[in-house]
Specification:
Length: about 300
């Protein structure tokens, strides 16, 4: 074989090898993180158990509707980076008794806030009994948050009710699982039936960074409590995590955080991340929660003594 033939054959082998050799794979292009379109995805979990009469249910419904029509709530939303939040409402009683009465709605201006308020007003009562399962309400709210077609900065479950958990699995387990998923749980206990329900919510229901609860002494004061609570939930997105007062079994990993009962400069109007009405409301909420906490503690201590 001539030298030219040998060189030609080698060239053909080289071309064939190059065609069959695996190509060096370039790294896939980086997928940009989804942009947050709302600052807060909020589930309003409303108690409609047997202890809630028709009149009490109406007071709850009107309280939520009035709050979303409030200029203070709309201003708090406008102060957010996204200038938008997403809200849904669910009625709950027993462990498997839940009805979504207002679908996910984005609130970004006066018109959308009015639409939500009107939807809340128009929503009929769907449940009338079946126990009081706060744990079931938390579990179902987690599913709603997973189905929200939004990309929130923060996810929060807002539980309101007039009784402690008496049905379903332990509420502390449901709470801690939600917190581990990055969900915050706030509470609005109504003290008309169980005078120390605020203490119960503080110890067993609320959890997550910046979690808090606002008690309503009666159903007649529910609207005022809801307004303060919504403003705090919306404007409180800039708060740092609070001091942990609970931990998992080995005591090493905090399972939830709550506002400290001690005076804390982070809650003062001077350091609140938003000014105006939000700051004044936050200051009054902190003082209210602190007074209730220490009042309950003193009464419990007196009874134990």
């Amino acid at each position: 074989m001539s030298r030219t033939s040998i060189l030609g054959t080698l060239a053909l082998f080289a071309v064939a090898f190059a065609a069959t050799a695996p190509l060096a794979q370039s790294p896939p292009p980086a997928v940009p993180a989804p942009k947050n379109d709302v600052a807060l995805a909020l589930v309003l979990a409303v108690d409609t158990s047997g202890s809630v009469s028709a009149g009490r249910f109406e007071l709850q419904k009107q309280g939520y509707a009035a709050a979303f029509r409030s200029r203070q709530v709309l201003n708090a939303i406008r102060e957010l980076d996204t200038q938008a939040i997403a809200v849904t409402m669910v009625q709950w009683t027993g462990p498997r008794l839940h009805v979504v009465v207002v679908d996910w709605t984005v609130i970004k201006d006066e018109a959308s806030a009015e639409n939500l308020a009107a939807a809340i007003e128009a929503a009929p009562r769907q449940l009338f009994g079946g126990g009081t399962s706060i744990s079931g309400a938390i579990d179902f709210s987690r599913l709603l948050l997973a189905d929200c077609r939004c990309t929130p900065i923060r996810r929060v479950i807002d539980v309101s009710g007039d009784g402690s958990n008496n049905s379903g699995r332990p509420v502390t387990i449901a709470r801690d699982e939600a917190v581990r998923d990055g969900i915050g749980i706030n509470g609005l206990p109504i003290l008309s039936i169980e005078p120390f329900l605020d203490r119960y919510y503080y110890d067993n229901v609320i959890g997550g960074p910046g979690a808090f609860m606002i008690p309503a002494q009666t159903y007649d004061t529910f609207a005022d409590a809801v307004l303060k609570k919504l403003i705090s939930e919306i404007a409180g997105l800039g708060l740092p995590p609070r001091r942990s007062i609970a931990s998992d079994g080995d005591g090493s990993t905090p399972s939830q955080t709550r506002p400290s009962s001690r005076r804390d400069s982070a809650h003062s109007p001077m350091s609140w991340p938003y000014g105006g009405e939000s700051a004044r409301c936050a200051a009054s909420i902190t003082m209210l929660s602190t007074r209730r906490h220490w009042s309950s503690w003193r009464l419990h201590s007196t009874r134990r003594g």
